[in-house]
Amino acid sequence: MPPPGLFYERRRPRLCKLGRVSDPKDDQPRNGAPQPAAHQLGQNASDDGVHNHIPMAPESGAELEAPPEEIAELVGMCVEAVARSAGVGLDFTADTLPILDHYVSLASDSARERPELLPLLSHSVGAYFGELLRRELSGFWRIPSANVHDWALCARHVFLWINPFGVAFDALAGGSEHEGPRSQLHVAHEYRAAVDARLALLPEVPPEEFFLLATRFEVIQLAAETLAVEMSNAGYSDTEFALEDYDAELRPILDP
157 phi and psi, to 5 degrees? Predict the structure, then answer.
């Protein structure tokens, strides 16, 4: 199978900074600097391809905002189901993602026998996966409607968003051919070349690992870390993105 970096969406989103939306025809970074070559990502990647973590999660002791009520309910369903099935509790860290992946593999069998279970399973698993990302990325949910196809988990310190329910649908269905949301990873156009270059260094993965939640988490984490390095190099390390920044970007994509 190709490298998991192909989960990355190559659309051209407009980068929103400090409440402003860049010209969609502008292909250059705001500081006018050329995009760095892959070998210039050394601040983020070592020669053997192992990345160095750039912390973006809330600082230790910082209070974490409660998730939206609809998310919290779905997360509770996922945690309870995994505890009953595996006898092990999920702790909202990457360390227990293999446990969730094991539960998903078992649940996939049930969903194949009873397809009507797929939406409920994907919603609960997707909510949990999104909450894990929210903690990792200091992010927030965008829920503009009751339709989960419109929902997104958005990063706060880099411009990156994804629909976690699409990721869960992929994992449960074992592929992207399903009626659930799309699961592509969207990042700011200004730094897309750098993210592409970094993800291209990832090794190929066997088919059975391609849609694992653990695989997706590593790809998203690596993309976010690369974006953080690029923004710091461009002088935007203190930038934070808010809901209105993502509203300006997602409306043209999601609206009919």
Answer: -100, -10
**pLDDT tens for each residue of 133-154:** 999 999 999 999 999 999 999 9
Mean pLDDT over residues 191-196, rounded? 94
Cα separation, 57 vs 85, whole angstroms: 29
Q: Give me 181's structure tokens.
A: 């949301």
- The answer on pLDDT for 249 being more than 90 is no
List b or e across 106-135, with b for residues whose CB sees 16 or more CB atoms inside 10 angstroms: ebbeebeeeeeebbebbbbbbbbbbbbbbe
Report CA-CA distances (Å) from 215 to 97, 110, 219.
9, 22, 6
Q: What are the pLDDT digits (tens) for 36-62?
A: 222 222 233 333 333 333 334 455 445
pLDDT of residue 139: 96
Contact predicate 241/157, CB 8 Å? yes
Model confidence pTM above 0.70: yes
Mapping DSSP onto H, E and C, the string for the chain reads CCCHHHHECCCCCCCEECCEECCCCCCCCCCCCCCCCHHHHHHCECCCCCECCCCCCCCCCCCCCCCCHHHHHHHHHHHHHHHHHHCCCCCCCHHHHHHHHHHHHHHHHHHHHCHHHHHHHHHHHHHHHHHHHHHHHCCEEECCCCCHHHCEEECCCCCEEECHHHHHHHHHHCCCCCCCCCCCEEECHHHHHHHHHHHCCCCCCCHHHCCCHHHHHHHHHHHHHHHHHHHHHCCCCCCCCCHHHHHHHHHHHHCC
Shortest CA distance to 220 belongs to which of 56, 17, 13?
A: 56
Q: Which amino acid is at 108?
A: S
